[in-house]
């Protein structure tokens, strides 16, 4: 097992790391829309969705993987009314080879974020 910390992703806001590698699999911690430069949540569901995906892409790159090697994504939304807006952004990060995915509405996310995503990917 190897612990992965990306210099390109925002600092963890709790006692966890960005990801863990086990054999050829990468398990990311949930990421919210934190700007890595300010460690503050960006505004709005569109910006947060983009920031989350950019942060996850950075973490996967550090782990010798990328979004094309994602096997499963779990998406947590604070309001399911944001689902379609999120989907429009999410689809742009994949080359028509979408991973399996679950989307769940929950009552609250850290730092009042609107979205959080965790992923399982394979190493390239």
TrEMBL record:
It comes from the Bacteria. This is RidA family protein. Gene3D superfamilies: RutC-like. Pfam families: Ribonuc_L-PSP (PF01042). GO terms for cellular component: cytosol. Belongs to the RutC family. One of its GO terms (molecular function) is deaminase activity. CDD domains: YjgF_YER057c_UK114_family.
């Amino acid at each position: 097992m190897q612990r992965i910390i990306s210099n390109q992703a925002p600092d963890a806001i709790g006692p966890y790391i960005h990801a863990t590698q086990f054999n050829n699999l990468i398990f990311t911690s949930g990421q919210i829309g934190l700007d890595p430069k300010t460690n503050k949540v960006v505004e709005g569901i569109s910006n947060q969705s983009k920031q989350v995906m950019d942060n996850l892409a950075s973490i996967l790159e550090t782990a010798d993987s990328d979004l094309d090697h994602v096997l499963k994504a779990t998406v947590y939304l604070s309001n399911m009314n944001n689902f379609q807006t999120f989907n429009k952004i999410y689809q742009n990060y994949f080359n028509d080879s979408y991973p399996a995915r679950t989307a769940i509405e929950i009552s609250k996310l850290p730092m009042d974020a609107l979205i959080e995503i965790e992923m399982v990917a394979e190493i390239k």
